[in-house]
Amino acid sequence: MSLNNNRKKHIKFIERHLALLPGSHEAQDVNKMAIVFYAIESLCALEIDTKEIYTKNLGWIHKHYSKISLENDEPIAGFVGSLTMDIAGVNTISLPNTLFALLTLLILDDRAFLTDSIEMGRISSFVSACQLEENGSFMSALNFDSIEASSVDSNDLRFCYIAVTILYLCGSRTINDFSRYIDTEKLVEFISSQKCNVGGFGQYGEPHAGYTSCALSALKLLDSLDRLSEEFIEKSITWLVQRQVSNIGCSKFENENNASYDEFDHGGFQGRENKFADTCYVFWCLNSLQILTPDWQTLCNTSLVRDFLLNRTQNLVTGGFSKNDEDDPDLYHTCLGIASLKLIDESFNGVLCIPKNISSSLES
Amino acid sequence: MSPWISCTLDKDKPDMPFNIEDYKDIEPLPITTGLPDELCEIMYTDNYKQIMGIARALVQKKEYSARALQLTSEVIGMAPAFYTIWNYRYDIVKWQMETHSNVPELLNNELSWLDEITLNNPKNYQIWSYRQSILKIHPSPSFKLELPILQMMIDDDTKNYHVWSYRKWCLLLFQDFSNELSYTDTLIQRDVYNNSAWAHRMFVLKSTAPSGNDINDEINYVKEKIELVPQNISVWTYLRGLYEYFRKDVYDEEIIKFAETFTNNVFDLKTLENLPPVESSYAIEFLSFVYSKNEATQYKSITGYKALSEKYDPVRVGLWDHKIKRIQQGNRAI
């Protein structure tokens, strides 16, 4: 079994999300930019010529770009998630929507925009405005009528990762570049404060594969992985490899008692201890591992991972991937299922979450 | 109509339900859609278009009013991820605080409203941070009032990460850790594999400066749970955490003997042929780590890791080989 056997079905499954959607999708209206990114990135990873097909939609994507005028300064700018949120005079841009839009534009090779240093500076200033002075972490948006980080948002590692990635896409490379817009020292301290004793990152000491991937990706882009001790890296590698679910050896004893254990999860990854395996956690764990060590493919068993994805969470009837073998497939898990397989093939940039042939254009 | 809008938001009109007629004077700001190059076009219902059109107009006007508050509730019900609307709602609540005669009551009503939203959207990102923002401006916040929603959400999903995080945030805010050990015990009794409950317990210990005797009690507590189910990563991690954090990572004879009761003399074997059955790969891993710390016992550590590769946890052969290599290079296993 390989991804290619089912490629056409996956493509159809993904393309459906970009077409006309029924009213039942209204709750997802404000997440449109995420849907666009997951879909176009997945198609690109499946080697569809996305640039050829979707260049005609660039105008619509650009309509989501919103500038906030400031009295005595350059405007700041970013993207909204949907035109429903585009309200003149109201701050509705957010960091996640901005990242999703920038990555989509990168895949569609919109060089005119991405090399416009004025616009990239405005977006970087928006990132700057979202940083919290108290601890260096980030809110994902601003208050609706003032240029200050949102009063009602959360400030966890997801937004730290997204903030750093946006700055990278806007041209920051060295720590000095990043420091023009954000307090990198405080940010690295905040990320370090989320380290867990057992390895990995998470809130209040409970490690979580998703947060771990965010923390490590951010540190990688900031070229600050050397801020982690050798002991912590070793613990984290161990913790991550332990997330691969197994049904051989002593693990089989869990079958009788552990309500969150399923022997058919064999080879998949879980996001935390004693949880079911899940397609998206395969990605978060593998991406974390590949950041920490070049030997990641020998440390964990990637051939079992492939089996888990292709034989258990891939949907052979409708296309797409689901989180497990019970739920219906969805776009998010499809995106990360494909990304995981491409990561194992070494053709995917997990830190930026785009195929390597796209990210390589950033390096030149 | 939304059943939760029964609080006294407007002193003149208590229990005023949502009524579209209240917005008749508002010129809606329509959604832009139907563009030729549009992706993910949604066939919006008339209701969605109408409510969003009015909401967009009210936000733009920055109208602070009881009806604006009610409309945010409608919008959040339809599109809970619309972060700007949460922001707008928060500002309306702060505006109400300026004139309301009973601010605690006003904010408690807001928290009750939020309970309903939370129960309908357990995985929404905004609910817990919004709750934190309300508690931060509450003149007399109460941990007791937070417990019902925390309990309902944990009953619904005993490993909900956001709920556990929020509980820990509350503990720090209220500086009240008094019930937490018995609380986690209840959940551990329900499911000894609940890693969140174990992580919470460790957080409580680290936050409360326990005495040496308290830690002895904890070690006995987790030992009982290991005896109950030896193949459970959460309990072994907890045991190691206790020693690492409160015992300077020094492992006494007693704990080594205890762990050895689960390993069927594997560490004394001369050859790895015909490995005996054992109850817990985590016991072997725990001892292999402990043995790696002392040069005189490192050979045992290597035996343990080889046995894991061979029989007890073969999926991770790459990791166990890596641990052996580290020891051979003169490092601890970690």
Automatic annotation (TrEMBL), chain A:
Pfam families hit by this protein: Prenyltrans
Record's GO cellular component terms: CAAX-protein geranylgeranyltransferase complex
Cofactor requirements of the protein: Zn(2+)
Domain Prenyltransferase alpha-alpha toroid: 6-347
Keyword Transferase: yes
GO terms of molecular function: CAAX-protein geranylgeranyltransferase activity; metal ion binding
Keywords assigned by UniProt, alphabetized: Metal-binding, Prenyltransferase, Repeat, Transferase, Zinc
Highest rank taxon of the organism: Eukaryota
InterPro entries: PGGT1B-like, Prenyltrans, Terpenoid_cyclase/PrenylTrfase
Family: Belongs to the protein prenyltransferase subunit beta family.
Protein name: Prenyltransferase alpha-alpha toroid domain-containing protein
Originating organism: Naumovozyma castellii
Automatic annotation (TrEMBL), chain B:
Pfam family, one: PPTA
Keywords, comma-separated and alphabetical: Magnesium, Prenyltransferase, Repeat, Transferase
Biological process according to GO: peptide pheromone maturation
Cofactor needs: Mg(2+)
GO MF annotation list: CAAX-protein geranylgeranyltransferase activity; protein farnesyltransferase activity
Record InterPro entries: Prenyl_trans_a (IPR002088)
Residue spans crossing the bilayer: none
Keyword Magnesium: yes
UniProt feature coiled coil, ranges: none
CC annotations in GO: CAAX-protein geranylgeranyltransferase complex; protein farnesyltransferase complex
EC number of this enzyme: 2.5.1.58, 2.5.1.59
Family: Belongs to the protein prenyltransferase subunit alpha family.
Classification via PANTHER family: PROTEIN FARNESYLTRANSFERASE ALPHA SUBUNIT/RAB GERANYLGERANYL TRANSFERASE ALPHA SUBUNIT (PTHR11129), PROTEIN FARNESYLTRANSFERASE_GERANYLGERANYLTRANSFERASE TYPE-1 SUBUNIT ALPHA (PTHR11129:SF1)
Protein name per its UniProtKB record: Protein farnesyltransferase/geranylgeranyltransferase type-1 subunit alpha
Species: Naumovozyma castellii
Gene name linked to the record: NCAS0H03470
